[in-house]
Amino acid sequence: MKRPPRTRPGAVPRDSPVIRERILSFAARRRRLRTAAGLTAILAVASWLPATRPLPFEICLLHGLTGLPCLTCGLTRSVCLLMQGDPAASFAMHPAGLPAVVLMALQVLWRGCEASTGRRLTLGS
């Protein structure tokens, strides 16, 4: 008489939909790697751009039409200043510069880990 395979209490079988859902396809791994590389490139370019005028054109339509600053005016310059090592000037330019850089850096790490392991990372269980 054949015994059923022994499993740990609460273990999920390998062919379970839960496990299959966490494994990433090759295309998904490539997308995550491209995202991480793109964000890394953005942060690297921000450290080289001149912080006084990082973009050669005005992209804020509200500021161009009305002369009033929008909520994100100065954010690009703030990120450039922070990446160039001037956090005080970055915060003075726009307080959301530091959270933007931190979120981009966390996304680089998260996407890079997912691409390298081939598994979708989740918070908690």
Would you write up a description of this structure?
There is one protein chain. This protein has about 120 residues and is mainly α. The protein has a domain of about 80 residues. The chain contains six helices and no strands. Helix 2 runs antiparallel to helix 6. It is elongated. The two termini are about 35 Å apart. The model has no long low-confidence stretch (mean pLDDT about 85).
Write the layout of secondary structure elements.
Elements: H1 17-22, H2 26-48, H3 61-66, H4 75-83, H5 87-93, H6 97-117
What keyword list fits this structure?
mainly alpha, 58% helix, 6 helices
Report the helical percentage: 55-70%
User: How many helices does DSSP assign?
Assistant: 6
Characterize the largest beta sheet: strand count, sense, and whether it forms a barrel.
none
Estimate what percentage of residues fall within beta strands: under 5%
Which overall shape is indicated by the principal axes computed on the Cα atoms?
Answer: elongated
Number of strands: 0
Q: What is the H-and-E element order?
A: HHHHHH
Q: Uncertain regions: pLDDT < 50 for 5+ in a row? A: none
Distance between the termini: 37 Å
Kindly report the average pLDDT value: 86
Q: What structural class is derived from the secondary structure elements?
A: mainly alpha
Q: Taking Cα atoms only, what radius of gyration do you get, to the nearest Å?
A: 22 Å
